[in-house]
Design goal:
about 400 residues; mainly beta; Methylamine Dehydrogenase, Chain H; four-stranded antiparallel sheet
């Protein structure tokens, strides 16, 4: 089946720009809903979209592998380009690779993000009109996948970084409920775990440089399993034989090469992944931080972890503190308070800068080396921390 996606294309006027010394950039939405790009230190910024042009919520915005900004506008289409040359232009509808990446734009930057493209660039994962597809980026031929999706799970596809396997979740009409699936476009085969009901069972992450998948089971527990058999055919379903990594109450789960981190009952835990060999991950976890505020993001970049804590009252929206943890010496290192009266967002790739939402002040960039602040925009919708999910670092 041939997948066709059509867009209306228009010209876009770009504000002239210049770069600060750092080549790190962040894109965000300001209080007027305009797409803005800033240098990492906040010294230089420019508005990308014209007044009245609204970023499409379904497709959003982000950065592609070449460092180009890519975004969609309601009624206007999709745009991409290199900001250094002001060459942002409409994307043609036939460019399946760019469209597929856009379908995987991050909406929750605190967890492993969906990505439209496989690690080798040979395939794209696309959602369109309630259906999931993989598309060959060389031939543009597409294959419709078994599960169907909706606006809640359309960006759930996550590719392994060592094999062309994509994991996603949706509804299995054959089984009459939600399901988790892993698909190999090379072999055109999949494995499926049905929930038996309507509870979401989303994928969480692939362990780096492996075919080990972290996912939620129908009971909500977090398991890890190796999907390598999908290359040649699985004699049994590995999604049904995974090892327990974290309880169903765990959230904000993130993984590195050697460890997993998550929040459970206001405590930030870490666990060495060697626990999987002995099936004792719950017994071997250690405390990384405490007083974590529920529903606020946790982010890991390199050897640094950041989260939001309360000091005295978790229900007091102004009682907040940004906490930093050096992961090179955990479990011995304790959290250090970087800023009081603020909610933590995401770290820059260099770990030198952090986006925060400060009580009664709005979104700012915090310079972790010099502790200076650079204002970005007011708190979105009057809800502290709400706008942090729109930040996209490059």
């Amino acid at each position: 089946m041939k997948l066709r996606i059509l867009f209306v294309l228009v010209l876009l006027f770009i504000v002239p720009i210049s770069y600060a010394q750092s080549d790190e950039l962040l894109a965000f939405l300001n209080g007027s809903g305009q797409l803005v790009v800033s240098s990492s230190d906040g010294a230089t910024r420019w508005i990308v979209t014209n007044p009245g042009q609204v970023v499409n919520e379904t497709n959003g915005f982000g950065w592609d592998a070449d460092g180009n900004l890519i975004f969609a506008l309601d009624g206007f289409g999709i745009f991409s380009g290199d900001l250094t040359t002001q060459a942002i232009t409409p994307i043609e509808a036939t460019n399946a690779e760019q469209i597929a990446f856009l379908r995987g734009i991050p909406s929750r930057p605190n967890i492993t993000q969906p990505n439209g493209l496989s690690a080798d660039g040979a395939y794209a994962f696309v959602w369109a009109e309630g259906q999931y597809f993989t598309v060959s980026t060389s031939t543009a031929s597409s294959t419709r996948l078994r599960l169907v999706g909706n606006n809640d799970n359309q960006s759930s596809g996550i590719w392994s970084d060592v094999a062309p396997f994509v994991v996603y979740w949706g509804t299995n009409n054959d089984a009459g409920g939600t399901a988790l699936a892993v698909w190999s476009p090379e072999n055109e085969t999949d494995i499926v775990l049905n929930s038996g009901g309507t509870i979401p069972i989303p994928p969480i992450a692939w362990l780096p440089d492996s075919t080990n998948l972290v996912f939620r089971t129908p009971t909500g527990d977090v398991h890890v399993t190796d999907i390598a058999c999908l290359t040649s055919g699985c004699s049994e379903n590995p999604l049904e034989t995974g090892m327990l990594l974290a309880p169903s109450s765990a959230n904000h789960i993130q993984v590195t090469t050697d460890r997993a981190y998550y929040v459970d009952s206001q405590v930030v835990y870490g666990v060495d992944l060697a626990c999987l060999d002995n099936n004792n991950c719950l017994d071997s976890r250690f405390i990384v931080g405490e007083n974590a505020v529920s529903l606020n993001m946790m982010h890991i970049s390199g050897d640094l972890l950041v989260y939001t804590a309360f000091v005295n009252d978790p229900n007091d929206g102004t009682d907040r503190a940004v906490q930093l943890v050096d992961l090179t010496c955990t479990p011995d290192c304790r959290p250090q308070t970087a800023l009081n009266g603020a909610v933590a967002g995401t770290l820059s790739p260099s770990n030198d800068f952090l986006v925060v939402d400060i009580v009664d002040e709005g979104l700012n960039i915090l310079n972790l080396a010099g502790n200076g602040l650079a204002y970005l925009t007011d708190t979105m919708g009057g809800q502290l921390g709400f706008g942090l999910s729109s930040i996209a670092w490059r």
